[in-house]
Each structure stands twice: as structure tokens, then as C-alpha cells.
Design brief:
D-amino Acid Aminotransferase, Chain A, domain 1
């Protein structure tokens, strides 16, 4: 496509990897939208949709940071971009914001984005400021991890700092766990860097925020439902989290102080917090919306379309705070490995009035993969209710209704097997 004509006076927003709904919602707020995408990162059909929606579509290889940098420079200048914005995957965020700074089209300082995407840099900053103290040590290579674990002490959490989506996160509980950890990082072909941290015990939450001009609005707090150690793959979320008011206030205050300390000024942030015996502690944060369908949970619970609110704020029409009037839950399916023989109850569950979304990625004849991270989960369901209790009961009803026969053994989505529901 060509550059906007002289009669097109819309503000020009150049976005790196904008999802389909981001393009639609930005345009609905009056923006001309250019989309820069790496064709490897989504299916051809998906990117055809983005291409059809966007005012401009530019393919680029995100693996080459300098090539991406040149592409953004050239496209932004040719098409007279007013703003360059990136709220997709973290790997290319800093590059995009550095280009935006060069062209004076930034919404956030690149330094702030670096702090939110680099787990080690974030820990260093918090340590210098005495905020949310956590024992940690950076390990540039995998060979340095075992000694770092010994110094931090068992149990310790080992995080690959260049992977996302809970990939490679491991609870190292004793010396003999080294073999299991090595097999895990081998699976990803990952050699470093890593961050080794003390194990924070307690319930985990994510804080969904929208920032504008350096002021941070807490949209809500989401309770995380985690799978077992050592991987802690997220198996669900509840929004809003059922938190006492004093704890809610403490989590909110820590999060907003943290974002201010990082220098974050505009857009969504997804900040993970654990409530430990010593109070709330920051786990990590991202300069984007939460994944795992959390924006949909927020909308079901409060009526606020947080995605639309980003672009409304960009157009100087910030959304009003929305109080929750319901509870929404997403639960992810995690069936045991094996061969799928039959699937029962899916259509019945999908017809329930309180089911907002239902997706199962398995079909008869498929081999069920082991769940090792967020990408390997087998599907999800979203339900809502007037209260936390009603939402949880409705979720349990759906999970009990769906059954997958794996290697001749019927397994329900709630993790129980057979008509009697004996644990597997």
C-alpha cells in the first residue's frame, strides 16, 4: 500500500505485530494503522486477516534486530508515522521503542521497556531501590546455574530470561533435580541466560493496569491457578481475585510504585505478584496485556474492553474505572499423555448458557502431548457467574461434563477418571 494521501488526516500508528483485534480497535478510535509482522509468528490465514484489516502491512524478519530496526525506520518515515507502538511479544519490544525514540514517536522510554522485559535488569533495579526484596542471582550460561542454585539455597526457581509463556521455569528442590532441569532446557535448545531466585511461597496474582502520562490505573487483580511443581504451568485464572481489601490495596500500591520506578508511562502492563508470609513480592512484569484470555475475563467481570481502552486512551478518551459485577474464570485442559480414542460431552458443555468460550485442541486419533508450558495445554473453557462461588461451581460443572478416552481410559477434564470419578 502507499503512504496516506494528503486528505487522510488520521493520526498514523505504526504497530509491531498487532493482533487482528488491535488493528480493528485502533481504527475504531480513528487511527491509520500500519502493521509490521514476522510471517513465522502466525499462520498465513491469520496474517491475511491482518493484511486485509490494516492500512499498511509490512513483513519483516524479527530474528534480525538490525534489519527490523531499518525496516521500522524506513516505514515510519515513508508513511509519516505519528507513533510507533508494540504490545505483542516481548522479544522485539526494546528494538521497536529504540526506533521510536530515534524518531521522537515513542509512547514509553526504551529504558522502561527494557526493565519490564529483562528479568535480571528488573531484579537489579528493585534491589537498588529496596523494593520487593527477593534473593536472586543471574547465571549467564547453563553451566553456572547449579552453583547459583546452591548459593541461593533449596528450593530455588530457575527462569530462562529470554523465554516467555512459562517455558523452562523450574523449581529446583534438591541436588538430584539437575537431570530433570537439564532435560527441560534441552527440550527448548536453550543455553542462557538464566535467573535463579528464592522460591516465593504463597498465592499468586496478576495485576492488570493501564497507564497514561505515567499515572497507573489498576483495572483489576486476577488470581492465578497453578499446576504442580516443578513447572508450575498456569491451569486457570479467576477475575477478580477474591482478596481482602487490605491485601488488595497492598498489591495495588506495590504494583503502581513498581511501574513508576521502571519509568513506564503508557499502555497496559501485566504484573505478577506473590503474597508471601512477608507481604507482596513482584515476580515479573510485561509491557503488554495479560495472556491466557485475561482481557476477556476482565470484560465479562466489569464490562470494560481493556483492549479498546488502550486505543481510546491513545486518542485522549481514557476509559472510566469499571467495578466488577461478576466473576469470570478460565480453566485450561491438561489431560495425561496418550492416544485419544473418543471425546464426550463437548457439545453439551458448549451449550450451557454460562459458557463464554470452549475450545479443545484434541481430536480422536491424536496423540496427547505432555503439558510442559502454556503452549502445550490442550484447550480451555471460560465461564462466568454472579459471585465467585457461582462461577467456580459452573466451572466445575463444565469440567465434569467433558470426558476424553485416552488409551482406553476415560478421563474427565476435572482430572478424574471413569464414571465413579476416581483420581488418576
Amino acid at each position: 500500500m502507499t503512504a496516506p494521501g494528503p486528505t487522510d488526516d488520521r493520526p498514523r500508528l505504526l504497530m509491531v505485530m498487532p493482533y487482528r483485534q488491535f488493528v480493528r480497535k485502533a481504527q475504531a478510535e480513528g487511527f491509520w494503522v500500519g502493521a509490521v509482522w514476522d510471517p513465522r509468528l502466525e499462520s498465513p490465514d491469520y496474517l491475511d486477516d491482518v493484511r486485509a484489516l490494516a492500512d499498511l502491512f509490512v513483513p519483516a524478519d524479527f530474528r534480525d534486530a538490525e534489519l527490523l530496526r531499518r525496516t521500522l525506520h524506513e516505514v515510519a518515515q515513508e508513511h509519516r508515522a505519528t507513533l510507533i507502538y508494540h504490545i505483542g511479544r516481548e522479544e522485539t519490544m526494546v528494538t521497536a521503542y529504540e526506533v521510536a525514540e530515534d524518531l521522537h514517536t515513542e509512547l514509553n522510554p526504551a529504558a522502561a521497556i527494557r526493565l519490564l522485559t529483562d528479568k535480571s535488569a528488573m531484579r537489579d533495579l528493585l534491589a537498588r531501590r529496596g523494593l520487593s526484596p527477593v534473593s536472586y542471582e543471574a547465571a549467564p550460561t547453563r553451566q553456572e546455574v547449579p552453583d547459583a542454585v546452591e548459593r541461593i539455597g533449596y528450593p530455588a526457581v530457575v527462569k530462562p530470561t529470554a523465554l516467555a509463556g512459562s517455558r523452562g521455569v523450574f523449581l529446583w528442590q534438591q541436588a538430584r533435580d539437575r537431570a530433570a532441569w537439564t532435560a527441560l532446557v534441552d527440550r527448548y535448545g536453550y543455553d542462557g541466560p538464566f535467573l535463579v531466585e528464592e522460591y516465593l511461597r504463597g498465592p499468586e496474582y496478576s495485576v492488570e493496569t493501564l497507564s497514561r502520562d505515567g499515572r497507573h490505573q489498576v483495572v483489576g487483580i486476577t488470581e492465578k491457578l497453578l499446576g504442580p511443581p516443578p513447572l508450575f504451568v498456569e491451569v486457570g485464572h479467576v477475575h477478580p481475585a477474591p482478596l481482602p481489601q487490605d491485601r488488595r490495596r497492598a498489591v495495588e500500591e506495590l504494583t503502581t510504585e513498581f511501574l513508576t520506578t521502571c519509568g513506564y508511562r503508557f499502555g497496559p502492563a501485566h504484573t505478577e505478584v506473590i503474597w508471601t508470609p512477608n507481604g507482596p513480592r513482584i515476580v515479573e512484569s510485561q509491557a503488554r496485556l495479560g495472556g491466557d484470555r485475561i482481557p476477556r475475563l476482565v470484560e465479562l467481570a466489569t464490562g470494560l474492553d481493556i483492549e479498546q481502552a488502550i486505543f481510546a486512551a491513545l486518542a485522549d478518551r481514557p476509559a472510566e474505572p469499571a467495578e466488577p459485577t461478576a466473576t469470570a474464570i478460565v480453566r485450561f485442559f491438561t489431560f495425561p499423555p496418550g492416544r485419544v480414542d473418543e471425546i464426550h460431552g463437548l457439545e453439551t458443555a458448549a451449550r450451557l448458557a454460562h459458557v463464554d468460550e470452549l475450545s479443545l485442541r484434541l481430536r480422536p486419533g491424536d496423540t496427547v502431548p505432555a503439558v510442559v508450558d502454556s503452549k502445550s495445554r490442550h484447550g480451555h473453557v471460560i465461564v462466568f457467574g454472579a459471585s465467585p462461588e457461582e462461577a467456580r461451581a459452573r466451572c466445575a460443572e463444565v469440567l465434569a461434563a467433558i470426558e476424553v478416552v485416552i488409551d482406553d481410559t476415560p478421563v474427565r477434564a476435572d482430572g478424574r477418571a471413569g464414571a465413579l470419578g476416581t483420581p488418576v
